[in-house]
Design goal:
It is built from seven helices and ten strands. The protein has a five-stranded mixed β-sheet with strand order 3-2-1-4-5, sandwiched between helices. The chain has helices spanning about 35-50, 70-85, 95-105, 145-150, 165, 170-180, 190-200; strands at about 5-10, 15-20, 25-30, 60-65, 90-95, 110-115, 125-130, 135-145, 160, 180-185. Helix 1 (about 35-50) crosses helix 2. By secondary structure, it is α/β, with parallel strands linked by helices. It has two domains: about 5-95 and about 190-210, ATPase, nucleotide binding domain (Nucleotidyltransferase, domain 5), CATH 3.30.420.40; about 95-185, 2-Layer Sandwich (Nucleotidyltransferase, domain 5). The radius of gyration is 17 Å and the shape is globular.
Length: about 230
């Protein structure tokens, strides 16, 4: 039985989820600019609801990005603190992959296009094909103009996820013309649990000192812990 706590603050949504065997306890709230106030109380709530202490878990997981720079930093810093205090290993989960996983479950589609509004006339984009083993990246994570993202959207029966589809005309036109529905707007910690479990069981979790966010924009850096280069 695997026990995992996941957190995410990469977008306007703030979420926490805890898996204890086949039981899942979760919190999800769209609360722009309130993540730092909401996150720790959510963690405390799901632990109390599950009747568990942090040290009784097997692994911690977090939305590693891409997403809001501030939001990704909040989740990264929080998970690093929790991991340092508990000694638990950590798994970073792509926010785009988490949305794709949830969209695949909701729609039954085998191709998922994900696009988060990255501001500055760009989106964070990736596409995934659903396989018996999980998600297989078709177009890897990138930050790009919406027109470039649109050029990758070649399958009309794909499912869509993310805020990017409504943010830019070329992408909203795709949803209208292909009658594709955006079934998931934001990444959620609950959707990260199965992806984190797969990674953990492959022995690919890392120590707290090795936790790093993924921004996709090169000009943004993460300040590592002292002594780590």
């Amino acid at each position: 039985m695997t026990r995992i706590l996941a957190i995410d603050t990469a977008t306007e949504a703030c979420s926490v989820a805890l898996q204890d065997g086949d039981k899942v306890y979760s919190r999800f709230e769209v609360c722009p600019q309130q993540h730092s106030q909401k996150l720790l109380p959510m963690v405390d709530e799901v632990l109390k609801e599950a009747g568990l202490e942090l040290g009784e878990l097997d692994c911690l997981a977090y939305g590693r990005g891409p997403g809001s720079f501030t939001g990704v930093r909040i989740a990264t810093g929080m998970i690093q603190g929790l991991a340092l205090g508990s000694g638990l290993p950590v798994v970073g989960v792509s926010t785009l992959a988490a949305m794709a996983w949830e969209a695949a479950k909701a729609s039954g589609a085998t191709m998922i296009y994900t696009a988060i509004d990255a501001r500055m006339a760009e989106v964070y984009f990736a596409s995934y094909r659903v396989t018996p083993e999980g998600l297989d990246p078709d177009v890897g994570e990138k930050v790009c103009p919406p027109e470039e993202a649109y050029s990758h959207c070649t399958e009309s029966d794909a499912a869509l996820a993310g805020t990017g589809w409504a943010a830019y005309e070329v992408l909203s036109d795709f949803t209208a013309n292909e009658k594709a529905q955006v079934s998931v707007l934001y990444p959620a910690a609950e959707a990260m649990l199965p992806l984190a479990k797969m990674t953990f069981l492959r022995n690919e979790a890392v120590a707290a000192v090795d936790v790093e966010p993924v921004y996709l924009r090169d000009k943004v850096t993460w300040k590592k812990l002292p002594g780590r280069e």
